[in-house]
């Protein structure tokens, strides 16, 4: 009699990391190194990227597969931020970069909501567990900052103040839950292009950024007051995004006419974020955007959400 033993499944690790909305984004004048100093308040939203890292034979290298909405717009080579994160962690820890990555997109692509950064953060946590490299979060955050300004926040989650390039983070105190609705465009905006337009519009003379300007917003967060938060939403990149996509003005107006507590372009756009009073109200704004053809898709969610976390 012959017995057949199925091959044991390869060990794998699954991690979830959130997208974000910038409650406020203040952008200073471009510096000699080409970067802009920022003061921003990030809030993680409950739209998640999921990354599964699976062990592969030694020497197999990195591979990546992507599914979920808009997956066809994501690169499958070494330019993918998840791939770069695995490479960076391997380099940092001296292990061989051998892993199969599977990314399930849950955050709009090129929508100013840092979906790629969430993939990078999730990959760092997943590979750290799979390769048993055991880096403390603070060290993972250093590797994260080398991958992009938004990656450290996707590790941390919740709500945080970002300074420097947005990568120097201080957690912010918040109370309660906020209801968000996002108008997402199939046609993304390139973040560098939005910054270039910002430089043109401000003629390189943007006002210096001040943390003190965020006092009303921080107070609204501490009080858990969505009305005050809505009034304090701010984005210095909004004029640049609107000049590249004038139709977003109507999306903002429709949200305000629908009673949104505040509406703002999310990060570098073209996603528009509206703060609603409740889930019902968020759905009503979403219905208006859909009926008026103001968005290709609408996404309702809550915030704040947790940072990159292992799923058991
Ligand atoms: P950010 O606000 O952080 O600048 P974003 O949210 O506007 O980014 P992403 O979805 O993170 O945009 O990605 C922007 C571009 O980066 C995409 O158009 C894609 O070509 C490329 N990219 C690289 N890796 C990824 C990834 N894992 N997921 C999505 N896009 C990726």
UniProtKB/TrEMBL annotation:
Domain (GHMP kinase N-terminal) ranges: 80-157
Lineage, uppermost ranks: Bacteria, Bacillati, Actinomycetota, Actinomycetes, Micrococcales
Pathway info: Isoprenoid biosynthesis; isopentenyl diphosphate biosynthesis via DXP pathway; isopentenyl diphosphate from 1-deoxy-D-xylulose 5-phosphate: step 3/6
Start and end residues of each GHMP kinase C-terminal domain: 217-293
Binding site for ATP: 108-118
Gene3D superfamilies, per the entry: 3.30.230.10, GHMP kinase, C-terminal domain (3.30.70.890)
Protein name: 4-diphosphocytidyl-2-C-methyl-D-erythritol kinase
Catalytic activity from the UniProt record: 4-CDP-2-C-methyl-D-erythritol + ATP = 4-CDP-2-C-methyl-D-erythritol 2-phosphate + ADP + H(+)
Underlying gene: ispE
Native organism: Isoptericola variabilis (strain 225)
An MF annotation (GO) of this entry: ATP binding
EC class of the enzyme, as a word: transferase
Record flagged with keyword DNA-binding: no
């Amino acid at each position: 009699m012959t017995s057949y033993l199925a091959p044991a499944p390869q060990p794998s690790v699954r991690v979830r990391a959130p997208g974000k909305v910038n409650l406020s984004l203040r952008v200073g004048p471009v510096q000699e190194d080409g970067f802009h100093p920022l003061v921003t308040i990030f809030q993680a939203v409950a739209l998640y990227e999921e990354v599964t890292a699976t062990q592969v034979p030694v020497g197999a290298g990195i591979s990546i597969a992507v599914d979920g909405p808009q997956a066809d717009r994501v690169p499958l080579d070494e330019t993918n931020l998840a791939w770069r994160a695995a490479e960076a962690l391997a380099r940092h820890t001296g292990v061989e970069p051998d892993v199969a990555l599977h990314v399930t997109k849950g955050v709009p692509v090129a929508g100013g909501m840092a979906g790629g950064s969430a993939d990078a953060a999730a990959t760092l946590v997943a590979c750290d567990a799979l390769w048993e490299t055991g880096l403390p979060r603070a060290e993972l955050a250093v590797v994260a900052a080398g991958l992009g300004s938004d990656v450290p926040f996707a590790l941390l989650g919740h709500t945080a103040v970002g300074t420097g390039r947005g990568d120097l983070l201080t957690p912010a105190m918040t109370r309660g839950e906020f209801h968000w609705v996002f108008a997402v465009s199939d046609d993304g905006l390139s973040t560098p292009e939005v910054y270039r337009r910002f430089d043109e519009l401000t003629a390189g003379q943007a006002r210096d950024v001040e943390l003190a300007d965020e006092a009303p917003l921080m107070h609204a967060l501490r009080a858990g007051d969505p009305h005050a938060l809505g009034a304090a939403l701010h984005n210095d990149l909004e004029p640049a995004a609107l000049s590249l996509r004038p139709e977003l003005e109507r999306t903002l107006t429709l949200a305000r006419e629908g009673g949104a507590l505040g509406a703002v372009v999310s990060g570098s756009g073209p996603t528009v974020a509206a703060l609603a009073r409740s889930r019902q109200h968020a759905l009503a704004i979403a219905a208006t955007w859909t009926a008026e053809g103001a968005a290709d898709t609408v996404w309702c969610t809550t915030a704040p959400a947790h940072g990159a976390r292992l799923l058991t």
